[in-house]
Amino acid sequence: MRPAAVLFLVGLLGLGASRLELAPVSIEQQSQNRIRWMALPNFEKEQLRQRWEEFRNQPLETQALLVQRAGTLGRLAAHESRREGGRRTPEEVEQDLARLPERLGPLLGLPPDSKPAFLSEALRVRTRKRIQAFLDNLVKAERLALGERAELEALPTWDQYVQGCLELRKREEIFLYAEGGGTAAAGVDERRQIEALAPLDVVEQMREVRRLRGFLGRAGAVLGLDAAERQQLADASDEEFFEVARRLMVPKARQYMRERLQMADDQIDRVLARPYRDLERSLHRLARQGS
User: Fold this and answer.
1) d(CA 279, CA 285)
2) Which of 25, 116, 200, 283 has the most crowded CB, counting CB atoms within 10 A?
3) How far apart are CA 109 and CA 100, in angstroms?
4) Which string of b and e fits 119-129 if b means at least 16 CB within 10 Å?
5) Which three-class secondary structure state does DSSP give residue 150?
């Protein structure tokens, strides 16, 4: 068994290592490990499961030596990391919150000195439009029944409506992840872990899965990204992530729709004009039709 493979496996399955008392693993590291695991294709997951069993069958002295080497490599990687900074202090968070109104104005096309109540209403209008577009796309994709949408829009308060839409967004993120080969082979345990998370935590984790894997859904398996393109996604900031993802996706999607699905250029343009997540979901549906 190759030492490099074992070291990667020990790092990736750190949660399992912690249960075996081989290495201490923080909550943050467990979350990172889970995201890396979710981004792997099923055949690599199966290979790693086999290597993990091989590792567990090694003598304890060999296991301890490999874990020691993994710890050294981890410290070196942290030292050489290009990413700067660490945890934000409570004071920094408070400062950001205090600056939020003046940052919201330009984002909403309003003067930065607009009153908070006016900003709040403008933000609600913008949010409702985005939610409506999201629901329209789900209905069109036959992922949301009209009756379900009516029940959602009949909720008595704005907060309940937003929370219901967030739960729906969470469901869709998990659906696209599973359709790309995520939870189908891993069984119900992985899905239960994801479903136990709050909606925004699921959204955040799926963005990190996209960084490592590329596009979610069937389109991710069909279009694919090479190593250099995945690196571009990994290097993109949160603010520019979906812009970079779209730039990488569009030429591949255009070629696929033209050559595989025989779609006309005007049809292709209409599909590619959609917001990123609607585009990802639409391409998933088209990839299923073309398979």
Assistant:
1) 10
2) 283
3) 14
4) beebeeeeeee
5) helix
Tokens in use for 114?
A: 């607009």
The per-residue pLDDT for range 12-43, each reduced to its tens digit, is 554 444 444 444 566 667 777 777 777 777 77
pLDDT of residue 154: 92
- Helices 276-290/241-259 angle, 10° precision: 30
Find tokens 């119900």 and name the residue: 188
DSSP assigned state of 89? P
Which residues of the chain fall below pLDDT 50?
1-4, 6-7, 14-23, 79-80, 82-84, 185-186
In degrees and rounded to multiples of 5, residue 111 shows phi and psi of -60, 145
Confidence (pTM): 0.62
What's the pLDDT score for residue 88? Answer: 59
Record the tokens describing residue 167, joined without a space.
């739960």
Asked if residue 33 lies in contact with residue 12, where contact means CB atoms within 8 angstroms, the answer is: yes
In Å, how far are 43, 52, 55, 64, 215 from 46, measured between CA atoms?
A: 5, 10, 14, 24, 21
At 160-174, the pLDDT tens digits run 999 899 999 999 998
CB 70 within 8 A of CB 25: no
User: Is residue 95 helix, strand or coil?
Assistant: helix
For residues 170 and 140, the answer to whether their CB atoms sit within 8 Å is no
Neighbours of 288 (CB within 10 A): 13
Token pair 């109540």: residue: 117
Structure tokens belonging to residue 277: 């997540």
For the chain, the distance separating the N- and C-terminal CA atoms, rounded to the nearest angstrom, is 37
